[in-house]
Amino acid sequence: MSKIQNKTDVILIGAGAMSATLGALLKELAPEWEVKVFEKLASAGEESSNEWNNAGTGHAALCELNYTSEKSDGSIDISKAIKINEQFQLSRQFWSYLVNSNLIRNPQDFIMPIPHMSFVQGEKNVAFLKKRFEALTDNPLFQGMEYSDDPDKLMEWIPLIMEGRTSNEPIAATKIDSGTDVNFGALTRMLFEHLKSRDVEINYKHSVEDIKRTGDGLWEVKVHDLELGKTTYHTAKFVFIGGGGGSLPLLQKTGIPESKHIGGFPVSGLFMVCNNPEVVEQHHAKVYGKAKVGAPPMSVPHLDTRYIDNKKTLLFGPFAGFSPKFLKTGSNFDLISSVKPNNVITMLAAGVKEMALTKYLIQQVLLSNEKRMEELREFIPNAQSKDWKIVAAGQRVQVIKDTEAGKGTLQFGTEVVSAADGSIAALLGASPGASTAVHVMLEVLEKCFPEYMMEWEQKIKEMIPSYGVSLAENPEFFEEIHSSTAQTLGLNVKELAYN
Ligand SMILES: Cc1cc2nc3c(=O)[nH]c(=O)nc-3n(C[C@H](O)[C@H](O)[C@H](O)COP(=O)(O)OP(=O)(O)OC[C@H]3O[C@@H](n4cnc5c(N)ncnc54)[C@H](O)[C@@H]3O)c2cc1C
């Protein structure tokens, strides 16, 4: 039977925050290109990007202690924190550009100001936090950060966390008011609405089953229409695999050399949600703790004020766990089906090396609700079980690959994997996540469209003025950008306080 092929310029697989961002960038840089999207679920932003599936932190390293490690000489390495903060500034600028150009509206529906805090207990952790504060405080990107180990001050900042605390253990916190809560689900939906208005063809309930190279150098994508039960074939010059956890199996189908010797390690998550408005009202911050010894960075506990469905709520977690699924809506066979002859050694090596992590994740899955309440009580001593319920969060698939550190090394960041000729790219990994989507999608453009970058540079700088510039080294420029994006996105805390 002959196949009918539908030709297009660009295919985006998956309707999450990453495809949304790439689509929005491309529509500004090459508006004449024809773009198609295939998403297997019924609407946009339903997997990891959904507001209930992630923690909604605008990651700028203001409070996440895993981005500032202690060196062997006792000093604090802030290079990663600077990098992530700069990447978040790129997102703020692109979102501001979209708002200023009326391409998306009502930024308060997807971004809200909220203090970002780090909170630690015990002498060693207090000493670490103080050193971290001292290392960051003079850097322009972290201006306005405060430190305190005075219980009265902490009571003022975080009454819910301080109330009922009886231990004499030293405690300390840092606080910075320029943090944000980002509703990535709402943002993703807004971006897809915008793409629709720009004639992007968005096909929901369409699952991509296969990707092959054609004789004329295009990519052919086999798509199954889940409603009509029909299969169609589409070709494109460029394909972006933005399938979240579903990206690895699709990348493997491309057969490109860059897809070999890579595996995925799925980590599930659970949040505790507070549904008592009296408790919710007593807290106004995202408060990150320190990961327990042996726990992976993605399981750092935090107590967050969230703005979801125009309502303030509290989320605690995530509790990491083990599930063989690559997507929340995935299959129990995802992990086993991803083991191929070319990555079996990589996967086995990771299995041996990460035995302790696997054991930790399985133990986490088996925690009783009362045990989870005990962990919550380390943050809120007076927490009552009746006020909290458990919700399942999204899946993260951590990349496993062979590195200088050895075969089968688990990676905690994101990786853009692309063909040498730039005709196809996939995004793997989950951290720092959607906060840095603009930076990651600019990387996709640089890797896949080097021949257009000169032509596009001026437009990129119009949208993202700090593109290619270090803000940490240009404090005045940072100040200008930070205050103009705060103005556009409605993040000026003082102004809000007067409203
Ligand atoms: C527990 C948790 C907490 C997190 N907290 C934060 C946070 O605080 N801040 C932050 O910035 N990031 C956070 N993240 C990460 C963030 O959620 C992700 O980086 C981001 O949502 C990834 O977007 P995406 O578009 O790549 O994937 P997704 O949003 O998962 O979208 C992928 C889409 O592809 C579709 N798809 C998959 N396979 C196919 C196929 N074969 N055919 C068609 N469609 C397909 C899926 O249905 C899905 O809609 C967190 C993630 C988790 C799980």
UniProtKB/TrEMBL annotation:
Pfam families linked: Mqo
Keyword Flavoprotein: yes
Keyword tags: FAD, Flavoprotein, Oxidoreductase, Tricarboxylic acid cycle
Pathway(s) it belongs to: Carbohydrate metabolism; tricarboxylic acid cycle; oxaloacetate from (S)-malate (quinone route): step 1/1
EC number: 1.1.5.4
Origin: domain of life: Bacteria
Cofactors demanded by this protein: FAD
Molecular-function GO term, any one: L-malate dehydrogenase (quinone) activity
Reactions performed catalytically: (S)-malate + a quinone = a quinol + oxaloacetate
Family: Belongs to the MQO family.
Protein name (Swiss-Prot/TrEMBL): Probable malate:quinone oxidoreductase
Organism: Tumebacillus amylolyticus
